[in-house]
Specification:
With about 100 residues, the protein is mostly helical. It has one domain (about 1-104). It contains four helices and no strands. It has helices at about 1-20, 30-50, 55-80, 85-104. Helix 1 runs antiparallel to helix 2 (about 30-50) and helix 3 packs antiparallel against helix 4 (about 85-104). Pfam families: Multi_Drug_Res (PF00893). It is found in: Cell membrane. This is Guanidinium exporter.
């Protein structure tokens, strides 16, 4: 169950990170509110997950999910550059997340 909570927390981290772009410097009320809700929910779920998962592992997986998802959505939504090096680095992060999952 903790891994499910942690995965949801990571997905919500993607939501608030991408949401920051849509807040337009926190001048748009609805995107700002949705970003804030995603941020709080992500932290709450992370807090619940670390009750039974090692803190270092949970935090690294949480930030890894957020990093990979945000990087991919940056490419898809905001036309950020797609290079072999960028994709390779994303792949390394995914391998790190999987590695931490299997050793925890």
């Amino acid at each position: 169950m903790s891994w499910i909570l942690l995965t949801l927390a990571g997905l919500l981290e993607i939501g608030w990170a991408i949401g920051l772009k849509y807040t337009d410097g926190f001048t748009r009320p609805l995107p700002t509110a949705l970003t804030a809700v995603s941020l709080v929910a992500s932290m709450v779920l992370l807090g619940l997950a670390v009750k039974t998962l090692p803190m270092g592992t949970a935090y690294a997986v949480w930030t890894g999910i957020g990093t990979v998802g945000t990087a991919i959505l940056g490419i898809v939504l905001f036309a950020e550059p797609v290079t072999a090096m960028r994709l390779g680095c994303i792949a390394l992060i995914v391998l790190g997340i999987l590695g931490l999952k299997f050793v925890a």
